[in-house]
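Revision sheet: structure tokens.
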Amino acid sequence: MTLVSRINTRLTEDVIRFEPEGKFLERKGRDTKPSKIADELIGMLNAGGGVLIYGIANDGTLEDLQQGELLRNSSGSLDAYRKLVHDLIKPPANIDLEEVYLSTGELVFIYHVEPDYEQLFQRDGNEAVYLRVADSNKGPLDRDQVARLEYNRGKRKFEEELRPDFAIEDLDASLCESYRKAMNYDGDFKSLAYKRNLCVLRDGNMIFKNAAILLFANDPERYIPNASVRYVRHEGTERKSGSEFNVVKDHRFEGPIPKIIGEITTFMEASLRDYYYLDLHRGKFIRVPEFPRDAWLEGIVNALYHRSYNIQGNPIMIRHFDDRLEISNSGPLPAQVTVKNIESEKFTRNVRLARTLNDFGYVRELNEGVPRIYRAMREFMLATPEYSDDGTTVTLTLRNKVSNHRETIAAEVVKRIENGWHRFNRSQQEIINILFETCEATIDGLITKMSVSEQTIRSNLKFLEAQHIITRVSERIRDRSAIYRFSDS
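Predicted:
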């Protein structure tokens, strides 16, 4: 593990070469023009900052800048990259350039970008504005997009507010040490916090920001009310009160955000159920989680670092019903993000929180944000995630397909279905799948779901009856309303 940076000690050779690109990390090959580098840096300045490595291709291939200098046969060619921050970006930006020689001798440039909440950055000359979104640069932004960006930059200052009332003794020592190790930092946590802009020095005193309290305080709620997560399990599919009160579990998670993420992950994995679906290709009953881990975990992490912490009325709420999971946090959505474009439009409200969680590994693992939630639900063949925004609260709803069908199908019947699946014709397989999804069906119900004749349906039902897979429930011989369901044994 070879360190390459004095400014960001988390950057090893493996990280800068092979860590997946995301919101806070970008690689550019040697042939990238200075103007393109400038555009990428502007996008990071206007988003959450980050690191751009020049001289390494997307796939991690080293492209020695010294060799590039010789190939271009121009002794001053790299100077354009050294000066681009001053020549191509306005207003003056807080970007440090490190020229690093790797252990194998290659030269790469590392641009360290710090965001600025007070200013909007653009290209000098054409005034083009860019914004870093996930792992790519968006822009040039149009006039309306720029206006919305300016609006949002003013809305996310809460995490930057200084807290002279915070006592350094209230820091979680074990978590601070974990962060120091995650950053490969040799000094103490206080100096690391200063380097990562989580605090400032005033008259020799260290004053921490709200972001540091949310991330590292033993009890953030002492300073920021309701900086917690509450999980409520409702029996059924509705919230009820009074004599019908249906809350069967109520648990609150308090403490610094990284610890909340760890505790709630363990808790949710134990609380969520499994369900079974019928794999139509193999004829096997497959056990899968109630919700994909990527979806619910990403939803919770998103809520923790996108929440408007200046709105301190309610904690983040996780409501768990039989058929869905609702994750709610204080809103509203950022100005350019709506419930319709949230899968593609992004804006990080709390940049310090996001970058530190990235340092810990939480956001780096889940760096695709909302699109990953959508993709995970699609892969599990579940309903499209639903977002709502009532102006004060943003809610993500994930719907499941949890069913007790596996319990209602006798083990012997399951065995007959799996063993005989490839001998059943297509209509027989379809009838089994319909019954698995609906528990029971009638002739008319099957006609509406299947593109075959009534006679074909009847003959296939008789076959499945003969195989002791389904049972007909009716006292009449020819009863169109007869109910068909799986056999009891």
